[in-house]
Amino acid sequence: MKYYVLCLHCGQPNEINSEYLTFCGQCGKKLPVNFRDWRKKNAGKYLEDYKISVGIPENELPLKNTGKSSGSDGVRHWVDISVTLGIVVGLIILALPSLLLTTDFSTLLKNDLPSTLVADLFWKEYELGEYGFYIESPYEMKKATVPISDQMGQFVQHAESFNATSPLNDFHLSVSIIEYSAQIPGVDLGQIMKSSAEAMRSSPSLKDFKYSETLISTTGIPGLIQKGTYTEGGQSFRFTNAAFNDGLVIWQVFIGFHTGQPNLEKTSIRVRKSIRILYDSAN
């Protein structure tokens, strides 16, 4: 069985045929997780272990949209497209942790600036996008660019993203809303969340990445939530990554914050509990 690693930049599958595979054969960009980096966190493991842990089996690769059917059961090949869809979400998430590194938190804590700064700000409920999504935030939500390549774009009907960051850069909130193309029969939310977590775990700058995952729902729409921690640049962070799915639409909410400010945990919980989705894919 052949195994592949998908490039986060162009979506090209790269066969894992050597422990030295590092760059995409199509665009030349560095692949999200190579064997040598992976082995640093998985001592004693071998290339075959890496293939099974990280790689995508050949028979589960997403097909390119050629407009042709590969037989009466060709539609089944689209089921595992969720691996690629997860990378779309993962690309958005992967850009977020570094945004929290622009503040010198050692100076911030030494000066004992009040963590109540967050709680004292004005909260506002935002309606974001075209799919009935509502969320409260003490910081202004601004529209952002969704980094989707042309090849990835064939699977996406509509995508939009919104960000909010605290004045001290110690708290970041991102909302992404994606409607996938009708050419796929369904969305595997579990695989998408797994792929987005792997996108974070494979980042060379993130260390001690740990998370747990549980089922949740909001206003009757099912979802998954990941809660975890990581370190970057010698600093500790917490994150919450929640996603909800109805039909071919996914709403994803990422919250990241520095662990040195106690009230940021409360802010994170309030933001998460405020999520409402008034949408019905059947209508």
What does this structure look like?
It is a single chain. The protein has 283 residues and is an alpha+beta fold. Helices cover 24% and strands 32% of the residues. The chain is built from 8 helices and 13 strands. The N and C termini lie far apart (43 Å).
Can you describe this structure in just a few lines?
This protein is an alpha+beta fold and 283 residues long. Helix content is 24%, strand content 32%.
For this entry, give a set of tags.
8 helices; 283 residues; 13 strands; three-stranded antiparallel sheet; seven-stranded antiparallel sheet; alpha+beta
Low-confidence stretches: 63-87, 94-119
Determine the strand fraction and express it as a percent band.
25-35%
Structural class: alpha+beta
User: Numbering strands along the chain, what is their spatial order in the largest sheet?
Assistant: 6-7-8-12-11-10-9
**Rg, nearest Å:** 20 Å
Q: Distance N terminus to C terminus?
A: 43 Å
Strand-and-helix sequence, N→C?
A: EEHHEHHHEEEHEEHEEEEHE
State the helical fraction.
Answer: 10-25%
Outline: globular
Largest sheet: 7 strands, antiparallel
Number of strands: 13
Tell me, rounded to a whole number, the average pLDDT.
74
- Specify the number of helices: 8
Assembly type of the chains comes to single chain
